[in-house]
Every structure is written in C-alpha cells, then in structure tokens.
Amino acid sequence: MASGPLAAILAACGSEPAATAASTLRVGHLPAGCIQHLLLAQINGLFKKAGLNVVLTQFDGPPPNLQSLVTGAIDVSHNPWTTVIAAYNGGQKDLRIIGGSGKGGIELVAREGSVKSVAELAASANKGLKVGTLRLDTLELVTYGTLRDAGRSYSQYSMTFFPSMVGMGDALIHKSVDVASLAQPYGATVVSSANGTYLNDSNQVWGPQASDCVVNVTAGYLEKNRSKLETYLHVLDEAAKLRDSDFEKALTQLQPIYQVPQPILSEGLKRQTPQPVLDTAAIQGLHKGVGYLIDLGYLKSDVIDSVFDSRIQDGAKLGGA
Fold first, then answer.
1. 54-94: per-residue pLDDT in tens?
2. What CATH number corresponds to the domain at position 151?
3. Are residue 123 and residue 94 in the same domain, yes or no?
4. Bridge partners of residue 24, in order along the sequence
5. Residue 145 sits in the same domain as residue 194
6. Which residues partner with 217 through β-bridges?
7. Model's pTM, two decimal places?
8. What is the CA radius of gyration of the chain?
9. Which of 62, 77, 109, 234 makes an SS bond possible with 216, Cβ 3.0 to 4.6 Å?
10. CB atoms within 10 A of CB 164
C-alpha cells in the first residue's frame, strides 16, 4: 500500500471528506511508469473537476493488487495484463480489461561486462550466462520472447526466477545475474547504476503498441458503474495529453513520487508512456503476447476477446478510440 512520499503527496491532493460513495472510485496500482498519467490526474485535481473522488492505493506487486480487486477492497486495478489473463484462465471469469494504462518500457537489460546485443545473447547460449526474470509477468514475456525469437530457450541459460523486480535489479547491479527484465523507470535506474545496456524491449517483442499495464474491473462492477468508469477513462486520457503537452512540468511533478533523479526518470518515462486507449494495434499486441503465454504453458487458448470489454472506452469519448 502507499507509503512514504507517495502517500504524503497523494494525501495532499486527495479526497474531500464529504465525498459520497457514489463519486468515490478506489484504485489500486503499482509503483511503475505505466501509471504516470494516473498520478498526474490526481496531482492536478483532474478527477475532482470531473466529479470523481479517486482514492489511490499502491501495491508492491501484481498479486495483492489483483486480490484486492477480486475481493472488492478496490474498484479498479492498474495491473499487468498477463496477471489478469492468467487469473481469468484460472477461473476468475468476472475479470474484465476496460482500457489501457501504459505501453513499452518493459526492458531486457544486460550489466556492464556482459552481452551488448541480442545477437551476443544468442551466441552465449550454453555458456552459463545468468538470466533473471519474473514468472507469469510482462517481464517474463520480454525475456522469453527475445530468446524464442532468437531461436533459444531457457534450458540454454542459467535461469533465476525472482519474486520481485526490485530484487532482480539489485542482482544485476551486484552481478548475481548478467541479464534481467525490468520495467521503467526502475529499468533506467538500474541501467545507470550498472552501466548497463538495453538489449530489447516490449515494443520489439509484442509491439509496436506493446501494452504493459491495463485498467481492470470486475464484470459486476462494470455493469453497475459504467458512467463513472467512462469518466475515469476520459480523465486518464486528459492527463496523458497534459503530460505530452508539457513533459518537463509533468517530470517535475512526478519526481518527488518516483524518487528517481530527474535525468534518469526522464529517460524511463519517455520509454514507458501512457496508453489510455487500447486500439486495434494494442489488442493485436495482446494476442501476440498471449501466444507466448500459451508457449510457456500458462494458458491453453487465447482469451483476450473474452476479457477485453470495449464498451467503457467507446463511451468515454477518448481521442482515437
């Protein structure tokens, strides 16, 4: 849950005490670049102007974020699409994706002194190269997809599956692994600290509109709160445009939250950008990504068309939707 600078800043621009339940939207998210426009909307009072009382809760990983959505502790979740698809496949058939959150910015990174290209990564097969990733996550997809497209497999590398991205970044910095998958802006921090090299990214693996986190709700909540959710997506779209119109101002506002030096944060947030609309290209990317999940044995069939509900996007009057 939110703590430290994030909690303090968001409390300062948070909800009115007199706000009614009808206007309140409880939103869970991760500490990632894919929710930069969500934070900007809260900081700049865009939700309040639209009549919404948005209460943000930060989670340290996708599972507790998803669990809080399923149990009704939150109403909306910004979470990796892989987590949602896996849960749906596992029996949670009331989960729905109603829009995008962020794209790009899922990176495959090599430390200094290791490989410097995908070609070198492929040539290092069966030579003990240490590769770290996160199971059943967009981070794994960029790892697996890169190796598969290069004609390689996990069995040809010394694989470590980490419980969190933070531990993986530390392992890369301290040379416990040679290559790891990371999300921005944390990826830019690790690249700077380890003098690392970007090998590949999600845009190359399942892009070009490579969705990372998406906006999720339950089907029951969607049916009862369509208007509220349409307003929410519309505000997110406004915030994304605000970010693009004055990136330097957005960077100044976001830096105290992410607590990353401004030059590094700038790089990270330019590589992982808001994606308030899941357009045709983005949906095609999700289908391609699901193909990797099927290859990995997590899924038996492509369920994207069953999980994605376009009605909220269509009603939100989004640019390009």
1. 999 999 888 999 999 999 999 999 999 999 999 999 999 99
2. 3.40.190.10
3. no
4. 53
5. yes
6. 96
7. 0.88
8. 19
9. 77
10. 11
